[in-house]
C-alpha cells in the first residue's frame, strides 16, 4: 500500500505539468467552442433550432421501449478518440496531433453547451447538465489521462532517438498499451451510462425544453 502511494505521488509530481497543460488546452477549446456559437448565421441558427425542436418532440413521443442509439455505436464514438491518441502517441510526429484532439474535444463540448445556453438560457444549461455531463465525467478524464500518457511515451521516443539507443526498453511500451486498455474499459462504463441513463433523463427533460421553444 505504501509502495503504491509512493509510486502515485512520484508519478503525479513527474506528470503534473503535462496534466495542467492538456487540461488548460482542453478548457481553451471549451471556451472557443462556446464563442463559436456567436458566429452562427441566422439561417444556421434556424436550422439547428428546427433540428432541436424535432429532437425534443421525438423524445416526448418516447422510444417505444428501444434505446435511441445502440450501445456499440456509443462506445465506438468514445473509443475512436482514445484510439487516435494511442496511435499518435506511438510516433514522434503524432505529438502535436494529440494536442489538436484535446482542443477539438473541448470545442465540441463547449459548442454544444454554449448553443443550448444561448438558445434556452438556464433551461439550456440544465438540459446540457443532463445530456452532456453524466458520461463526460468519465470520458473527459479518460481523454486527458490518455493524452498525457501518449505525450509522455512520444517524448520517451524522442529521447531515445536523441540518445541514439540501439534497443529501447519494452517495459514503457507495455505500460503504455496496458494504460490505454484500462482507459478503454472506463469508456465502456461511460458508454453504459449514456446508453441506460441519458435516455431516461432526456425523456424527463424534453417536455420542459419544448415549453421554452
Give the terminus-to-terminus CA distance. 55 Å
Question: How confident overall, as mean pLDDT?
Answer: 85
Contiguous helical run count: 7
Q: Identify low-pLDDT runs.
A: none
β-strand number: 0
Q: Which percent range describes the beta-strand content?
A: under 5%
Give the fraction of residues assigned to helices. over 70%
Strand-pairing-aware structural class:
mainly alpha
Largest sheet: none
Structural Rg: 20 Å
Global outline: elongated
Q: How would you characterize this protein structure?
A:
Helices cover 85% and strands 0% of the residues. It has 213 residues and is mainly α. Helix 2 (42-61) packs across helix 7, helix 3 (71-88) runs antiparallel to helix 6 (171-196) and helix 4 runs antiparallel to helix 5 (133-162). The mean pLDDT is 85.
List the helices and strands and how they pair.
Layout: H1 2-36, H2 42-61, H3 71-88, H4 95-131, H5 133-162, H6 171-196, H7 198-212
Helix pairs in contact: 1-4, 1-5, 2-7, 3-4, 3-5, 3-6, 4-5, 4-7, 5-6
At a glance:
The chain is mostly helical and 213 residues long. It has helices spanning 2-36, 42-61, 71-88, 95-131, 133-162, 171-196, 198-212.
Label this structure with key terms.
mainly alpha; 213 residues
Amino acid at each position: 500500500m505504501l509502495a503504491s502511494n509512493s509510486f502515485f505521488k512520484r508519478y503525479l509530481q513527474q506528470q503534473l505539468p503535462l496534466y495542467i497543460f492538456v487540461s488548460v488546452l482542453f478548457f481553451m477549446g471549451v471556451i472557443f467552442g462556446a464563442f463559436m456559437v456567436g458566429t452562427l448565421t441566422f439561417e444556421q441558427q434556424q436550422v439547428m433550432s428546427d433540428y432541436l425542436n424535432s429532437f425534443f418532440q421525438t423524445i416526448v413521443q418516447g422510444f417505444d421501449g428501444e434505446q435511441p442509439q445502440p450501445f456499440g455505436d456509443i462506445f465506438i464514438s468514445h473509443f475512436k478518440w482514445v484510439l487516435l491518441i494511442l496511435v499518435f502517441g506511438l510516433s514522434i510526429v503524432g505529438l502535436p496531433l494529440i494536442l489538436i484532439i484535446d482542443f477539438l474535444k473541448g470545442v465540441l463540448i463547449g459548442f454544444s453547451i454554449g448553443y443550448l445556453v444561448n438558445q434556452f438560457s438556464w433551461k439550456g444549461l440544465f438540459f446540457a447538465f443532463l445530456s452532456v455531463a453524466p458520461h463526460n465525467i468519465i470520458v473527459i478524464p479518460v481523454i486527458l489521462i490518455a493524452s498525457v500518457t501518449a505525450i509522455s511515451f512520444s517524448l520517451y521516443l524522442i529521447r531515445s532517438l536523441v540518445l541514439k539507443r540501439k534497443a529501447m526498453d519494452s517495459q514503457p511500451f507495455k505500460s503504455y498499451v496496458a494504460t490505454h486498455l484500462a482507459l478503454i474499459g472506463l469508456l465502456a462504463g461511460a458508454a453504459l451510462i449514456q446508453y441506460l441513463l441519458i435516455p431516461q433523463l432526456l425523456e424527463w427533460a424534453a417536455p420542459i425544453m419544448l415549453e421554452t421553444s
